Amino acid sequence: MKYLSIAIFTLMNLVAFGQSGVSVTYNIAKIGDTYYDWQPLRYIQNDSFAFQYRQKSDEDDVLKRKKVFTKRMYHHATFIDKSNLSSYNHVDWPKGNKVLLKDTIKSVEWVLVKGTKKILGYQCYGALNINSNNDSTLVWYTSDLGDGIGFENLNFSLGMPLEFFSQELNRHYLATKIKKGDFKFNLPAAKIVNRIDYVAPKTNGVGNFFGVKKQY
Question: Which stretch of 90-94, 168-172, 183-187 has the lowest confidence by average pLDDT?
């Protein structure tokens, strides 16, 4: 069954590439709540690549001791190639038709805000974005841990986000754990398809889940 409007896929298998980097784990709650009811997010990066995924819990983290990331993709996981500001998401729909959907991480204009705060011992500074729908995103970041390019599909190069408020998503992210190390990344061998050219087949009334992108 064909589900590509334009066949622009390719096979890709990068050799594992390691650099000194940082892993940050975040708890997630609705804005204004103190109960963190979303699965924690882990964002791992070095100077060239990044990878983020959801955890059931720290104890149940299947990637907790992994040395090489993205040999295979996981549900709700994203691989980021900083060199071309691209992100990749694993899709297996219909079942057995695995592809990597490629997005371009768009540049976002940030306005620096006054004040600082300490998070996990790091001095953090504020940056604000207001999108075309008048939804605001506030990031508290540190310049001591590299950048956050690709974090939740944002081109955030000012520093590493340690706290993140998204009015559009109604979510509040707060860093709870930081780990430094040599992290390796390897994009799986798979068909790579631009998201804008991906059309999910309509099966039992189910249409295209993947055509909607956040606007910044």
Answer: 90-94
